[in-house]
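thread: overnight batch results

M.L. [08:02]
morning all. the overnight job finished for the chain we discussed friday. pasting input first so we're all looking at the same thing
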Amino acid sequence: MKKIARFIVSVKKELKRVRWPKKKEMVVYSTATIVSIVFFMAFFTLVDSVIGLLVKVF
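M.L. [08:03]
and the structure it wrote out:
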């Protein structure tokens, strides 16, 4: 039980040291993430379509 209590205390200490992002930073990070996801989704959809067409041809 002492180990669990010590762990929780150390977690609380670490969380106080964390530099949490501001709202503006979070908007920028979220936008970059969503744009990246959409880009890769379109890229892999295109690649999948091309490979599908090649398989049908051969």
